[in-house]
Amino acid sequence: VTSLPQQLKQQRDKLRQYQKRLSLGLERERALARQLLRDGKKEKAMLLLKKKRYQEQLLDKTENQISNLERMVQDIEFTQIEMKVIEGLKIGNECLNKMHQVMSIEEVERIIGETQDAVEYQRQIDELLAGSLTEEDEDAILEELNAITQEQLELPEVPSEPLPEKIPEVSPIKNRPKPELVAAS
């Protein structure tokens, strides 16, 4: 079973073969017309040249028909490509519609919200594992620091006596001669 474009190409090829036969015949008839003129048979040469002229017109018509067939083949092949594209778009649209039926806007929003919650939860876990503190931890630490600072504000009393101006220097102990011990007799 041959397709329409294939059948058109076969017709085009047959027309080209017909063209070749006509071209070969034209060359022979021209040569024959020369021979007839040389032989003095002008009337037969004229008749042969009229026949040749008619075949040249057929050759031109054949060329136009071949061009029309080639254009038609190209149009059909392009239309087939367009049909495949349209079929692909149709299948794609059907697939998208089925996906849209499965996934509503509310469902997508819910999934996005859950994803954001999961990402935030994972970030908190990462921070804990990395030893970094969350904002809540920072706030708790600041509160504790303020409490400790308030406790330390109770300082000891300041002495009422004035401090000495100069601290007396302690003199070093001088080496005194050791008394000699006398032996008792």
Automatic annotation (TrEMBL):
GO terms for cellular component: ESCRT III complex; multivesicular body. It is found in: Endosome membrane. The keyword Transport applies. Residues 153-185 are annotated as: Disordered. Residues 52-79 form a coiled coil. Keywords: Coiled coil, Endosome, Membrane, Protein transport, Transport. It holds the Pfam family Snf7. GO terms for biological process: late endosome to vacuole transport via multivesicular body sorting pathway; protein transport; vesicle budding from membrane. It comes from the Eukaryota. The keyword Membrane applies. This is CHMP6 protein. It comes from Hylia prasina (green hylia).
